[in-house]
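[agent] plan:
  1. take the single chain provided in the ticket
  2. run structure prediction with default settings
  3. attach structure tokens to the ticket
  4. add a short note for the reviewer (M.T.)
[agent] executing step 1
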Amino acid sequence: MAAAAASITASLEHLRIRGGDDAVGDDSDARSTARNAEEEARGKSASGDSRSACSVARGPPSSPPPSSSRPVPPPPPSILCDAWYGFPRQRRPRRERINAVARQVSNFLDWRASCNIGTCRPGCRVSLIGDEGDVGAVSHRMKELRNQGQLRQSTDSCDAAMDFESNVSIHEFLDRQQTASMGDVVYLSPDASIALSTDVPPPRTVIIGMLIDRRITEDRSRIRAETTLKLRAAKLPLGELNIKELISKEPLNVDTVMELMQRWWWNCDRLESQKEAIGDELQPNAYRTCFLEAAAWAMKTQRDRHPNRTIHMSNN
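[agent] step 2 finished; step 3 output follows
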């Protein structure tokens, strides 16, 4: 892991010093860039009293552009945490699984809350779907973690940031959310035969299996996606990072995957808003840079949060 950590740090430094439109910096730089782009874009298109809470007053309102020229905003991205694999029934293994799922999802929400202090960036919606007993147990444990002061977010913030859906199937939930296209839904699996493309923004709805075990069973998430749910399975394009110890088949921690996806969505949304603001063409590899930055920072967070992370072992 030491060599991988050094490679991740080198990747961040490489991205930071490249300069130009594709350059990336730390989180504070990204938040500042996002705010400036949002203010410029909204300053050009805002009119009358229709300004949002994130807008900045810029004198007399200008005439609104024709409605046909206004881009339709994409639906907010969504992460579905699939707990339908079921949790162990034995007391100790069950308690360990509940605590692990609650901790990893809470880690992500806590990280996102700390990143969004003083900003207006909308976060993806997170939903935990599964058996009533399992979902209720995770919700209860997440509240306990906050009440014990182990995480920064309050219980109310947690509830506002998540949906806890009991006894609802994945397809029922997608239908209820009126997902625009099933082609924009992907089930993340390290065993999938294809990787997500870095030439375009990622799908807006991502499903992550709550398989948090030291010992993994290969193909379990891929089979559930493709055979049971009839959904597209894809793996993260981790090979793009060119880190020797990291391949696209490596199962990452759930909180790391969630952070990577949130950063990737934020970066692509920022890129699109900058394009609208300046009316310019995107630079070559701009979307790829969005992924590289997101992955490098998410992997750095994983290294800092889980310095002693064990290497996953396979049952096969």
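[agent] step 4 note for reviewer: The CA atoms of residues 21 and 116 lie 23 Å apart.
[agent] ticket updated
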